[in-house]
Specification:
Elements lengths: L4 H11 L3 E6 L4 E4 L1 H7 L3 H4 L12 H14 L1 E10 L5 E12 L5 E10 L1 H23 L3 E6 L4 E4 L1 H7 L3 H4 L10 H5 L2 H12 L1 E10 L5 E12 L5 E10 L1 H47 L4 H28 L7 E4 H11 L1 H7 L1 E7 L5 E4 L1 H18 L6 E12 L2 E10 L6 H4 L19 H11 L3 E7 L3 E9 L2
Parallel strand pairs: 12-14
Antiparallel strand pairs: 1-2, 1-5, 3-4, 4-5, 6-7, 6-10, 8-9, 9-10, 11-13, 14-15, 15-17, 16-17
Helix pairs in contact: 10-11, 12-14, 14-16
Length: about 475
């Protein structure tokens, strides 16, 4: 028995997975495949002879639109619509409809193929959800995330970047990111260096550098940057993730500082024992010889030099012990204004001699702190002497002392600012000024211990010290101490 082509085609159509539905010129269903039964839920015997508008969600309106389109264009391709099943479920479908014509070319009906796109829509929705989720993470991440074009203009600036740097997206979008780069790093060619590294390697990983915030703060950051390419692997931009590691670096410096202090403590104790006693004997003998040689000016002058140099050595050892001292401060209730006023009186002659204007601004009166009074006096003497040295080569010399109360880490603290308009501190030195023996002063003018002593005193009083400086403009020290 021969297999006829017609039988083969009917079998293929009948068993086809997509739903195949044919209608006559009036829209009545004349053919309804097994795939249509599976998609729509109606059996062939239930639906044959019924109008196709039965399973369109928009009913007659949709069926009329399809028939009109077939009359005008003979076919509809990839038309998205919704059908309603026997169980009243709504299924999105992709519809292809073609005209059926007789031998004279007259339209006698239509044949439509319905493909369910429900799973595709679910997948698309899932992808959209993932994209929205990733966008949410991108925009709201605590880390600063930026997307730049090939000219380093900012395209995306997330909430983390707003919080870290203080600029809103509206303020920076479309601008080159260079306003964040400190001028000294820009002068050294950091921008060009990073661009070169990115283009050569395709990424920059955990590059530690510094950036400037809107309020002028200079923060230490870790920067990771990746090249973005299109489908042809052509660079079209870059993404940048920035972490603020200022606090982490501060903790690292404090650990190093503590270790140095422990080493210096051992050294100072040894020096005090090994050098202190012989120096005291030398000074005593020199004083005795001065009495014997009272009538000889030349001998007395030489002995005075010996005594002065011995006192200098003693002072150096004393300073060293002061830096390394591990004993607890003797805490009492201290009137802060009284301490500062007494220090200003002690240094008044220096201020007058150099023509320095000192302006004090106590925004709150009667501030009491729990502190070691002698240590507090030493702290302010060291900071003010440091300011005096910074003003040596300035014409209009000024020091401002501002005292106020503020909130810090959920507690009330007194905030003391000491501001000078002196020579300032270079960016490469600002992180080293509290290191023992580090000094930028000329040889013989400084020991590099003054600010180390200040840092230790602040630390022992459970306080904080910060410094901001601009070269040739001045320096601002901020000390925060707990209020009694």
């Amino acid at each position: 028995m021969d297999i006829r082509e017609k039988d083969v085609l009917e079998t293929i159509v009948e068993s086809s997975t997509p739903a195949i539905v044919a209608t006559d010129i009036k829209g009545r269903i004349t053919f309804y495949s097994k795939g249509a039964e599976q998609l729509l839920g109606f059996k062939a015997e239930e639906i044959l002879g019924e109008k196709a508008e039965l399973f369109y969600l928009k009913g007659y309106t949709e069926a009329s639109f399809i028939m009109k389109s077939i009359r005008e264009n003979e076919k509809i391709q990839r038309y998205k619509t919704n059908v309603i099943t026997k169980s009243k479920s709504i299924i999105p479908v992709l519809l292809d409809v073609s005209a059926i014509k007789d031998e004279r070319g007259e339209l006698i009906g239509t044949i439509g193929i319905f493909r369910s796109i429900l799973e595709e829509q679910k997948l698309e929705e899932q992808i959209r959800k993932q994209e929205r989720f990733l966008a949410f993470i991108l925009l709201n991440s605590a880390e600063a995330i930026m997307v730049l074009d090939m000219q380093d203009r900012i395209l995306v600036w997330n909430k983390g970047a707003e919080m870290m740097f203080g600029y809103t997206e509206e303020e920076v979008k479309g601008s080159q990111y260079y306003f964040l780069v400190p001028s000294d790093l820009e002068a050294k060619g950091e921008i060009q260096f990073l661009s070169k590294q990115l283009m050569e390697r395709g990424y920059i990983n955990n590059y530690v550098t510094e950036r400037i915030c809107k309020d002028g703060r200079r923060i230490i950051i870790s920067l990771t940057r990746s090249l973005i390419t299109d489908e042809n692997n052509k660079p079209i931009g870059s993404s940048t993730i920035v972490r603020d590691i200022t606090y982490q670096k501060k903790m690292e410096r404090e650990m190093v500082f503590t270790e140095k202090m422990a080493t210096i403590g051992k050294l100072a104790s040894s020096l005090a024992h090994e050098i202190g006693t012989p120096i005291s004997i030398l000074m005593g003998r020199a004083e005795y010889l001065k009495k014997i040689a009272a009538g000889n000016e030349e001998i007395c002058r030489c002995l005075d030099i010996i005594i002065a140099q011995a006192e200098r050595i003693t002072k150096k050892v004393s300073n060293l012990l002061s830096v390394a001292r591990q004993s607890q401060p003797e805490i009492t209730k201290v009137a802060l204004k009284s301490i500062i006023s007494s220090v200003l009186d002690l240094l008044k002659s220096k201020f007058d001699k150099m023509g320095i204007e000192v302006v004090t601004n106590f925004k709150k009166n009667g501030i009491i702190i729990e502190a070691d009074a002698d240590m507090m006096q030493q702290l302010f003497i060291n900071l003010l002497v440091n300011a005096i040295d910074a003003l040596k080569r300035k014409q209009n010399k000024r020091i401002d002392i501002i005292v106020d109360i503020g909130d810090y880490e959920e507690r009330k603290m007194v905030v003391i600012e000491i501001i000078d308009n002196g020579c300032g501190i270079t960016p490469e030195n600002i992180n080293r000024i509290f290191d023992p023996f580090f000094t930028t002063k000329e040889r013989g003018e400084g020991t590099g211990l003054g600010l180390s002593i200040v840092a230790r005193i602040v630390q022992e009083h459970k306080g904080y010290i910060e410094v901001q400086s601009i070269v040739k403009k001045g320096t601002r020290f901020v000390i925060k101490l707990p209020i009694a």
